[in-house]
Design goal:
heterodimer; A: about 270 residues; mainly alpha; 13 helices; B: about 325 residues; alpha/beta; Rossmann fold; Alpha-Beta Plaits; 6-stranded mixed β-sheet; 10 helices
Chain lengths: ~270, ~325
């Protein structure tokens, strides 16, 4: 319970800091709404024009979109320290301070920031999930709800894991590496849509290397009763664990990288 | 076994040079920040760690506090290896950086102290008692509800010191703690540190460029240059090696002209005021004074040593730093 309690206390403080300038906060939140609302609008326009994309109906597409939005922006909301502030933590030398405290560095990085502006993006995602569920007439069961919950949780871990790649580069070069954004933000944009609409190389990338298909889309397809791959039913609950595996592997690499940290200035 | 044991410590950084024309990759060079540094510090000691910029002071402190991993040599602090037993080790140390804040910038400092209690898992009663004590000694009472960013530098340093001592560390690292502080803040911070060392037997390792800090606080001083330890002993001893010159300033009633002074004396000035620099080992002070007195009626005379900064500059020059 130790790290979790610290996380709650820190996050409460970070929220207070973010809310210190309410008008600015409101404007930025509005901007987020326009941005993510625009993304949803793009899907709505596609559905309006084509009705279906391969074997996926409009409702299905909303549902996939919602899965990604909720997962990605929950991660940005709660794990902003990893997804956003880490490069500046390294550059400002604040990482030294984290190393001087008797807590895990990754825990403290997660505790260092939270971004409540993302709430509107999460709301857009939830709206998309509801639209999709209604339009595709999903019959909810306990197992489906469980699969959804597991997928979002593992998807968040996967997202954190991908951002940790960038963090590891930062530790070595004290600069952020834009290339990694291709996996994080690129992965988010691409995997708003079911991967089987993509050509084979992309499909393989997002299944085997950056497993958004395994963590988010297999469970989503299961909820929609249209299995993504012709695999046995139990795989629905095992595949998402790949997202957690990516996170724990990257967390281990991160810890190793800290041993080679060089610090900045005096 | 000493409290801090450092043996043959080495650390090399790889630095990439600017890319030359026509080459695809940048050349790398290695900079040896620490070469074979060894020393011991006993519990309760106040040690000053000096040396010019880039000598390796900060690197030493960062290794001793567990931030950096060295390439070679061994370090134990209270039986722990800082970089290997990091969490256990940092619970027992406090670090203050003069140029960098460790508290939270945007919240009242009381909130920072509350979160530090959580981070160090301090018992409520212990934390409260210690906080009350430090707040009173550092005169922070009125500042507790003010965000850190609104404090003056002096107030901020006092807050930083408070934050670094809440968990009652056995060892305190101070990295240029008085940099940029006014005279009053400097003096009160020095007094506080002396008191902390006396009351709680806190071991203090101080890196600084301010020789007055060292003179006021440290009985022992280590000099580091180009990554090697060049001196380790009492400050007096260090100064006496370079402190050879004495300066006499003399002012006469009316204009006088100085007689020829003995070899080795350097006199400057005109009219009724002169400044004479000489080495007491080479020139007899009594002789010099007699000559000065014969020249006219002395209204005022002061004799002093060179100031410490000059001595240190001379020392660095002679050590070729």
């Amino acid at each position: 319970m130790g790290p979790f309690r610290l996380y709650l206390k820190s996050t409460a403080m970070n929220m207070r800091i973010r809310m210190q300038y309410p008008l600015s906060f409101l404007m930025q939140t509005l901007a987020q709404l326009v941005m993510e609302g625009g993304e949803l609008l793009a899907v709505i326009l596609i559905v309006d024009r084509f009705d279906t994309l391969d074997r996926w109906t409009g409702g299905d597409l909303y549902f996939f979109f919602g899965m990604m939005s909720v997962t990605f922006y929950l991660t940005e909301f709660l794990g902003r320290g990893v997804t956003g502030t880490f490069p500046s933590i390294v550059r400002s030398g604040q990482l030294d301070t984290l190393l001087l405290r008797p807590r895990g560095v990754l825990t403290q990085v997660l505790c260092s920031d939270a971004d409540p502006r993302r709430i509107v993006c999460i709301a857009v995602g939830i709206a998309a999930l509801c639209m999709g569920s209604a339009a595709s007439r999903v019959r909810w069961t306990f197992l489906k709800a469980l699969a959804l919950g597991e997928a979002i949780l593992c998807g968040m871990l996967l997202t954190l894991g991908l951002f940790l790649i960038e963090a590891v580069f930062c530790i070595f070069s004290v600069k952020s590496v834009e290339l990694v954004n291709a996996l994080t933000y690129g992965g988010r944009s691409a995997c708003q849509y079911p991967v089987d609409i993509f050509p084979r190389p992309l499909r393989t990338l997002f299944t085997a290397a950056v497993p958004f298909a395994l963590t988010l889309q297999i469970p989503a397809a299961y909820v929609l009763d249209k299995p993504l791959f012709p695999w046995p039913a139990w795989t629905v609950f095992v595949c998402p664990l790949s997202g957690a595996a990516v996170f724990f592997a990257m967390a281990a690499v991160f810890r190793r990288a800290l041993k080679r940290y060089r610090s900045t200035g005096s | 076994m000493s409290y801090i044991e450092v043996r043959n410590l080495t650390k090399t950084f790889t630095v990439r040079k600017k890319r030359e024309k026509g080459r695809l990759f940048r050349e790398k060079t290695s900079v040896r920040a620490l070469k074979d540094v060894s020393f011991d510090v006993e519990k309760g000691e106040l040690v000053g760690y000096i040396g010019p910029n880039g000598a390796g002071k900060s690197t030493t402190v960062k290794i001793l506090s567990g931030i950096l991993t060295p390439d070679g040599g061994s370090v134990t602090v209270g039986g722990l290896v800082p970089w290997r037993d990091r969490k256990e080790h940092v619970r027992r140390i406090g670090v203050v950086f003069g140029q960098r804040t460790q508290l939270w910038w945007d919240v009242p400092i009381m909130d920072s102290f509350t979160l530090l209690r959580e981070i160090y898992r301090l018992r409520e009663a212990d934390w409260k008692a210690r906080l009350d004590e430090l707040v009173q000694r550092l005169d922070l009472e009125k500042l507790l509800s003010v965000p850190l960013r609104q404090l003056s530098l002096g107030q901020r340093m006092r807050s930083e010191v408070c934050g670094s001592l809440l968990h009652r560390p056995d060892l305190l690292f101070l990295d240029e703690p008085t940099i940029g502080l006014d005279a009053v803040s400097k003096l009160s911070l020095r007094d506080f540190l002396k008191e902390e060392n006396r009351l709680n037997k806190t071991t203090v390792l101080l890196t600084t460029h301010d020789m007055e800090d060292v003179a006021a606080l440290c009985s022992r001083v280590m000099v580091l240059g180009h990554g090697s330890k060049l001196f380790d002993g009492e400050l007096e001893e260090l100064l006496s090696r370079y402190d050879t010159a004495r300066i006499i300033t003399v002012r006469y009633d009316g204009e006088v002209s100085l007689p020829a002074l003995p070899e080795g004396c350097e006199a400057r000035g005109e009219g009724g005021a002169f400044r004479v620099v000489y080495d007491p080992a080479a020139v007899k002070t009594a002789e010099l004074l007699a000559l000065l007195q014969d020249a006219g009626a002395i209204r005022e005379l002061t004799a002093r040593t060179q100031d410490t900064d000059r001595l240190i500059a001379k020392m660095y020059r002679e050590m070729e730093l």
